């Protein structure tokens, strides 16, 4: 397909990179990007890092390449509904956009604090968008007496690191026994906890906040054990929810966990059949990963949004058979508390982890995760250059622990990784 109309719903990373790939692969027709945010596509990773520390202005995060794309933009306009039979997207301003192909890249939003009236207290923030980051940065500039962060996942920990760097007192509360436990397990998470404490963060693990209290402005959090934490700024960092609500009634297989798609990024209908005209990419997509037994996975990784957007674009133009199944190895990075953490593969389901290079004591190491005797993931901490060597063993499902052969390295000692059970998640 070279002509016709392609509409992209969600004008952020996956949508932009998908649109660029359409042009790069020869699409010469009409290309329209619809985004509910008023901004041109921007980068989210800096929002919890250099934007919070004040080193980068929120407005300086626009993604490179936005201006060069030959496309029509509908910004500040939400896609409200999808008429699949009529191949039409309904916009909040009443416009109906007919399409030959649609790329759904509506991503995810921050999971809100579950009690809406408490979430509305001033001083309670989430962190997903540029506007969220600007509002949080303004709150921090007022020098709150204590910042409370709910959730020690990547965004909670990165925010804690940035806010400590501003010299503000920070408490982090998480029900798991370690930060980053869902993604890395409590063995590696325990190392990160040590760094957080060394940086002066009050880390409360195995604890749960039940209520936020205050009169108009938040004043304190109440814990399940009856204790309280006084805080005048709260960051709710409880993970993300996929933006699929607007697809209600469209007959697609979609829920808060994502929009199901096949290996060629085609959206699946409720019966599990691919829709030849509708594609999904980025955080919103839940797709079968060939490296993980084709089990559906939904990622929140920058690199996935880029690669999957491009894969979907090629499938739109050249057909599903021509592109094959999307099989990019999941990868992400994080920087916090002086640690550069990089990951390849998925740790989910791992039954063992072994430190195969370096050591936590030295502050740089590489940990490999195994499942049923096979290598499934690797994480480097301040040792990114060691990581690429593990891509092959992960792709091949090489025996775990992988034989490193390093003469200066003792034999790795696998231990249970301390990943929470999925039921507890
Ligand atoms: C604070 C923060 C830090 C991060 N740091 C890292 C990191 O260090 N490393 C890493 O690998 N990843 C990181 N990520 C994750 C990474 O940014 C995401 O994976 C990436 O943004 C996903 O891109 P996307 O385009 O799929 O979705 P999104 O970026 O969520 O974009 C979706 C867009 O669609 C819009 N939209 C939603 N619904 C509609 C609708 N109905 N109509 C129109 N538009 C709609 C949304 O408003 C949004 O603009 C971070 C994310 C955040 C929030």
UniProtKB/TrEMBL annotation:
Keywords: FAD, Flavoprotein, Oxidoreductase. One of its GO terms (cellular component) is cytoplasm. Residues 6-309 form the FAD/NAD(P)-binding domain. Residues 398-425 are annotated as: Disordered. Its cofactor is FAD. Residues 332-397 form the Reductase C-terminal domain. Coiled coil: none annotated. GO terms for molecular function: oxidoreductase activity, acting on NAD(P)H. This is Ferredoxin reductase. It comes from Methylobacterium tarhaniae.
């Amino acid at each position: 397909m070279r002509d016709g109309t392609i509409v992209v719903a969600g004008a952020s990373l996956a949508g932009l990179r998908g649109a660029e790939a359409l042009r790069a692969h020869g699409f010469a027709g009409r290309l329209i990007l619809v985004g509910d945010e008023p901004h041109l596509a921007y980068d989210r990773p800096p929002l919890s890092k250099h934007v919070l520390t004040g080193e980068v202005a929120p407005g300086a995060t626009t993604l490179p390449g936005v201006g060069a794309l030959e496309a029509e933009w509908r910004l500040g306009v939400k896609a409200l509904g999808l008429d699949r039979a009529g191949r039409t997207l309904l916009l909040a301003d009443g416009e109906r956009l007919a399409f030959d192909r649609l790329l759904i890249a509506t991503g995810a939003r921050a999971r809100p604090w579950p009690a809406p009236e408490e979430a509305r207290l001033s001083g309670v923030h989430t962190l997903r968008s540029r506007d969220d980051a600007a509002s949080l940065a303004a709150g921090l500039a007022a020098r709150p007496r204590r910042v409370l962060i709910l959730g020690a996942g990547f965004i909670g920990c990165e925010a804690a690191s940035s806010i400590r760097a501003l010299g503000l007192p920070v408490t982090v509360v998480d029900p798991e026994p370690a930060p980053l436990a869902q993604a890395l397990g409590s063995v590696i998470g325990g190392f990160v906890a040590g760094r957080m404490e060394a940086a002066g963060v009050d880390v409360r693990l195995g604890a749960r906040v039940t209520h936020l209290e205050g009169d108009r402005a938040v004043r304190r959090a109440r814990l399940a054990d009856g204790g309280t934490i006084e805080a005048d700024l709260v960051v709710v960092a409880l993970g993300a929810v996929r933006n699929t609500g607007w697809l209600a009634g469209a007959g697609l297989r979609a829920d808060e966990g994502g929009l199901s798609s096949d290996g060629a990024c085609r959206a699946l209908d409720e019966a599990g059949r691919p829709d030849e005209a509708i594609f999904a990419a980025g955080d919103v997509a839940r797709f079968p990963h060939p490296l993980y037994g084709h089990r559906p996975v939904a990622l929140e990784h920058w690199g996935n949004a880029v690669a999957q957007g491009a894969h979907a674009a090629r499938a739109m133009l050249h057909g599903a058979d021509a592109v094959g199944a999307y099989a990019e190895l999941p990868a992400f990075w994080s920087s916090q508390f002086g640690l550069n953490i990089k990951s390849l593969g998925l740790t989910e389901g791992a039954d063992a982890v072994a430190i195969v290079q370096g050591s936590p004591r030295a502050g740089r190491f590489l940990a490999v995760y195994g499942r049923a005797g096979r290598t499934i993931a690797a994480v480097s901490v301040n040792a990114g250059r060691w990581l690429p060597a593990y891509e092959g063993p992960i792709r091949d499902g090489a025996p775990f622990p992988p034989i490193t052969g390093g003469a200066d390295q003792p034999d790795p000692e696998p231990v249970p990784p301390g990943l929470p059970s999925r039921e507890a998640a």
